[in-house]
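Write out the 3D structure for:
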Amino acid sequence: MNQTNGAGAGLKAWEPERLSPRDKLMLSMIAGGAKARDISKLENMPSESRISVVRNSPAGKAFLSQVSAEIVQDITQDTRELITSHTKEAVQTVVKIMRSSDNDGTRLRASQDLLDRGGFKPVERQETVHYEVAPEDVARLVDAMAESGKTVEELHFYDESHKLFKDENEIEIIE
């Protein structure tokens, strides 16, 4: 049987229209990671069914979503503050490792880490472009190469007006 009037429109008879302080406490405990069976024992409840009803009700879902978002926001803020408060010490530690390590690899990684954090991160990707060349154009390319008497590698070093290829991209012949 559905209620059809007021704020409870669309709710089933057993769903809470509003959450009691006890309901909010249970949902806060769930958001914090507590299990329904543990909450029912703690609250001296005969079964976990009330917790499920509250958790799955529209009001319960909305409250749980809000509390979960607040928890995530608090954790994020706490983490930012913790990182900020230890940034100088962390940088000093990396500098110390960079200067005093007996291992060249360790010193190099510490140096790279400092450069990365300072905005001097090296480019780590290469892009390969494949051009499709129609079979009828292959003959024209071969003739142009033969006329020049140069290899593809040599042609690459010509100035812009003499190059057959604009850059070092691969050419794929499609038959």
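The beta strands are 130-133, 170-173.
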